[in-house]
Amino acid sequence: MSAADWFAAPPLRTGRLRLDALRLADASDYLAALGTPEERAEVLAHLRLPGLTDLAGARAVVAAAVTDPERVAYAQRLADGTFVGTTSFYEIAPAVRAVAIGHTWVARPWWRTFVNTESKLAMLTHAFEALGAERVVWHTDIRNVRSQEAIARLGAQREGVLRHHRVRSDGSWRDTVQLAMLADAWPDSRSRLEDRLAEGGA
After folding, report:
1. Domain enclosing residue 86, as ranges
2. CA 170 to mean position of chain CA atoms
3. Distance between first and last Cα of the chain
4. How far apart are alpha carbons 88 and 128 in whole angstroms?
5. Within 13 Å, how many C-alpha atoms sit on residue 172's CB side?
6. Per-residue b/e over 12-27, b at no fewer than 16 CB within 10 Å?
7. Phi, psi angles (nearest 5°) of residue 43
8. How far is it, in rounded angstroms, from Cα 187 to Cα 87?
9. Whole-angstrom distance, CA of residue 76 vs CA of residue 30
């Protein structure tokens, strides 16, 4: 694969989910999927997305995602087209065959369902099998235990804590938990994920 292939956004599919390149036209669906103000606050609690209270704010956030040259942003949709969140590849480093997955949120009604697992299965398959990645990384707020547990269920290993790695939306310093999966762990992780989904697990 060429370096340019790492920055492409081909459609990714599973049986119940589709990932398509995020577009500016998705802003209204993006905002609607965040739900009520209470749901939106819960979904975005650990993400730095200011101003997401109206369509103009959603358009600004989507525009920032799709114009970032260092990020490949996807809309997460059910097979019927229902918008249920976003996710991205970032920290894309073809020279060392490494990439991070993040900027992820899933609409509150779809937490602990197949959505996150199938989305990550599609992304990991693309990273390891299409791009030939050696390493896939995740970063999450040390306070976000739910996210850390979800990433670990994918088969990633916790590597450590990056102290004062980022600044939260409230201005406080964020310690970041880093997890990663290497290529040699992918076949077993893929089998476990497929078995879990086949058995109805999330």
Report:
1. 3-198
2. 22
3. 32
4. 15
5. 9
6. bebeebbbbebeeebb
7. -65, -40
8. 22
9. 10
Instruction: Check whether 51 has a pLDDT greater than 70.
Output: no
Question: Token digits for 158?
Answer: 């916790």
pLDDT for 176 equals: 96
DSSP E strand stretches across the chain: 12-13, 17-21, 71-78, 83-93, 98-106, 135-141, 157-167, 173-182
pTM value is 0.93
Residue type, 34: L
Number of domains composing the chain: 1
State the burial class of residue 144 (Cβ atoms within 10 Å of its Cβ: 0-12, 13-18, 19+): middle
52 and 61 in contact (C-beta within 8 Å)?
Answer: yes
Tens digits of per-residue pLDDT, 77-133? 999 999 999 999 999 999 999 999 999 999 999 999 999 999 999 999 999 999 999
* Domain CATH code at residue 167: 3.40.630.30
